[in-house]
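wait is this the right file?? whatever heres the structure
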């Protein structure tokens, strides 16, 4: 691969990283926030306020867990191959 091709590839990865990663991190943050707080809200009485039975509670929880399970395996292996430095990776991987 020529040096100009390598430079162009790095530039493209950096541009994608800087535009896409903040959006993905924000989306993941809100998804995690909702997944963590939904059971707390149900215990605090949200299920009674909204007349949710066990089936509806399960569906509400599954809405936030299903995309994480489906797309998580595709997103996480891609991130280490990107050109981000370690601080960005620590923000992406919370565990």
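ok assuming it is, sequence goes like this
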């Amino acid at each position: 691969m020529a040096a100009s091709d390598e430079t162009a590839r790095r530039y493209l990865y950096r541009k994608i990283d800087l535009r896409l990663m903040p959006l993905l991190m924000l989306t993941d943050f809100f998804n995690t926030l909702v997944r963590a707080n939904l059971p707390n809200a149900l215990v605090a009485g949200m299920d009674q306020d909204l007349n949710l039975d066990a089936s509806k509670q399960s569906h509400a929880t599954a809405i936030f867990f299903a995309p994480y399970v489906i797309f998580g395996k595709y997103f996480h292996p891609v991130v280490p191959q990107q050109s981000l430095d370690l601080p960005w990776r620590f923000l992406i991987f919370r565990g």
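Residues 3-49 form the longest helix (47 residues). so i think its the right one actually
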